[in-house]
C-alpha cells in the first residue's frame, strides 16, 4: 500500500489548464448533481474497462470498493446501482446503464473524448464528467508518425511478402518516404502539436486546417506550446486535400466532423496520398475509404480508430485485408507510461471531486 501511495505522488494532478483545443467540450456549468457527494474513502467505484494494473491497485487504496464488470455475477443493474462513480478508459456507457445508477455522481475519463457515453442522459441526471486532456498526446503523435512511415515505406506489405516466402528485390519495393513531404493536419490540439514537432525533423511542409483554433497558435511561444511550428493555415478542408502527400486527422468526433472524410473528399486527394486516422473512427467513412484504396484513388492508409471498437476481422471490412493499409485496434495512447499517468490522473480527479475539492477538467 505504501509503495502505491508513494508512486502516486509522481502523478499528482497538475494545476487546471485550458481544455484540449479543438475538442467540442460540453458546458462545465451544468447543474450540480442532486445526489449528495460522499468521501472517496466511503465511495463505491465502477471500473468499466481495465486500467493500468498499478493504477487499479491505487484505486483500491483511494476508494472503499472498486467493482468490475465480472463482479456481482456480471449483473449490470446491480453494479450500476451501487456505483458512486465510473472510471472510464475505453468502452461505452449506455443510457440504460446510466438510468440504473441512482447514486452516480461522476464519470472520470482517462482520455479526452467523451463520445463514448450517452451525453443526453448524463446531462439529464446531472452527472459530472471530467477528462484528462493532453496526457497521451505524445504517445498518439508517436503512433501517427509510426503509421505514416509504415504506410509510406510499405513496411507491413513487404514484411508479409517475405514472411510468406517471396523473394522481394529492393527495386520492387520502392516507396515515396516521408522526408520533404507535404503533411496536412486537421486540428491543432495537443496531439497535432506533438506530431508537428516530430515532422519538423523530417523537413516536412506542414499545412493545417483548424477553423476553431486561434490564428496565432503555434506561431508564438506559450507554456502549452513552447516550440514555434512553421506551418501554413488553410481556410477550408478542400484547400488542404489536393496539396498533401499525407493527411493526418486530429479532431474530435461531433456533428461537424462525423464523416468529414468521405467520397467527395477522397477524390480530391492525390492518388499517391496517404490518410492517417488516430482521431476517431466516425470521422472517416470507412466504406468510402475502402473504395478509394481498392481503386487506387488513394495511395494508402494507417488506421488506429474505428466505427466499431474493439476492432477485429469482420468489423474492419476490407480495410483489414488491403495490402496498402496498416491497421491497429486503437492503441494510440497505449504506451506504458502514458496509460499509467492517465489512469492515475483520472482516479485522483474523481477522488478529489468526491472529497469536495471541485471537479478539475470538468467537461459536463
Automatic annotation (TrEMBL):
Which InterPro entries does the protein's record reference? D-isomer_2-hydroxyacid_DH, D-isomer_2_OHA_DH_cat_dom, D-isomer_DH_CS, D-isomer_DH_NAD-bd, NAD(P)-bd_dom_sf
Q: Under which name does UniProt file this protein?
A: Phosphoglycerate dehydrogenase
Entry keyword RNA-binding: no
Task: Give start and end of each D-isomer specific 2-hydroxyacid dehydrogenase catalytic domain.
Answer: 70-363
Q: Note the Gene3D superfamilies from the entry.
A: NAD(P)-binding Rossmann-like Domain (3.40.50.720)
Pfam families per record: 2-Hacid_dh (PF00389), 2-Hacid_dh_C (PF02826)
Note down the stretches annotated as region Disordered: 9-33
Cite a GO CC annotation. cytosol
- Boundaries of every D-isomer specific 2-hydroxyacid dehydrogenase NAD-binding domain copy: 145-332
Extent of the signal sequence: none
Which protein family is named in the record?
Belongs to the D-isomer specific 2-hydroxyacid dehydrogenase family.
Listed PANTHER family = 2-HYDROXYACID DEHYDROGENASE-RELATED (PTHR10996), HYPOTHETICAL D-ISOMER SPECIFIC 2-HYDROXYACID DEHYDROGENASE (EUROFUNG) (PTHR10996:SF264)
* Keywords per UniProt: Oxidoreductase
GO molecular function annotation: glyoxylate reductase (NADPH) activity; hydroxypyruvate reductase [NAD(P)H] activity; NAD binding
Amino acid at each position: 500500500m505504501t509503495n502505491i501511495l508513494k508512486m502516486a505522488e509522481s502523478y499528482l494532478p497538475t494545476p487546471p489548464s485550458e481544455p484540449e483545443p479543438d475538442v467540442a467540450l460540453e458546458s462545465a456549468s451544468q447543474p450540480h448533481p442532486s445526489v449528495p457527494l460522499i468521501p472517496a474513502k466511503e465511495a463505491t467505484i465502477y471500473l468499466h474497462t481495465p486500467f493500468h494494473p498499478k493504477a487499479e491497485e491505487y484505486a483500491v487504496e483511494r476508494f472503499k470498493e472498486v467493482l468490475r464488470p465480472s463482479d456481482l455475477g456480471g449483473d449490470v443493474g446491480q453494479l450500476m446501482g451501487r456505483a458512486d462513480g465510473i472510471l472510464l478508459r475505453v468502452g461505452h456507457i449506455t443510457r440504460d446503464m446510466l438510468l440504473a445508477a441512482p447514486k452516480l455522481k461522476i464519470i472520470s475519463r482517462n482520455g479526452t473524448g467523451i463520445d463514448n457515453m450517452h451525453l443526453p442522459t448524463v446531462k439529464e441526471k446531472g452527472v459530472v464528467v471530467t477528462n484528462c486532456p493532453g496526457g497521451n498526446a505524445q504517445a498518439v503523435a508517436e503512433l501517427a508518425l509510426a503509421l505514416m512511415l509504415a504506410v509510406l515505406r510499405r513496411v507491413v506489405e513487404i514484411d508479409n511478402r517475405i514472411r510468406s516466402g517471396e523473394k522481394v528485390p529492393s527495386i520492387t519495393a520502392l516507396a515515396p518516404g516521408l522526408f520533404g513531404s507535404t503533411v496536412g493536419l486537421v486540428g491543432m490540439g495537443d496531439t497535432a502539436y506533438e506530431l508537428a514537432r516530430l515532422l519538423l525533423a523530417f523537413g516536412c511542409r506542414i499545412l493545417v486546417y483548424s477553423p476553431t483554433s486561434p490564428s496565432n497558435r503555434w506561431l508564438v511561444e506559450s507554456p502549452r506550446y513552447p516550440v514555434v511550428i512553421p506551418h501554413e493555415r488553410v481556410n477550408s478542408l478542400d484547400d488542404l486535400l489536393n496539396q498533401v502527400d499525407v493527411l493526418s486527422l486530429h479532431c474530435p468526433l461531433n456533428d461537424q466532423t462525423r464523416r468529414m472524410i468521405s467520397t467527395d473528399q477522397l477524390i480530391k486527394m492525390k492518388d499517391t496520398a496517404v490518410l492517417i486516422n488516430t482521431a476517431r473512427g466516425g470521422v472517416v467513412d470507412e466504406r468510402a475509404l475502402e473504395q478509394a484504396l481498392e481503386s487506387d484513388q488513394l495511395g494508402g492508409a494507417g488506421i488506429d480508430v474505428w466505427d466499431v471498437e474493439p476492432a477485429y476481422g469482420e468489423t474492419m471490412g476490407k480495410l483489414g485485408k488491403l495490402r496498402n493499409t496498416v491497421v491497429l485496434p486503437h492503441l494510440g495512447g497505449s504506451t506504458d507510461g502514458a496509460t499509467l499517468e492517465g489512469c492515475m490522473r483520472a482516479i485522483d480527479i474523481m477522488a478529489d471531486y468526491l472529497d469536495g475539492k471541485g471537479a478539475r477538467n470538468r467537461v459536463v
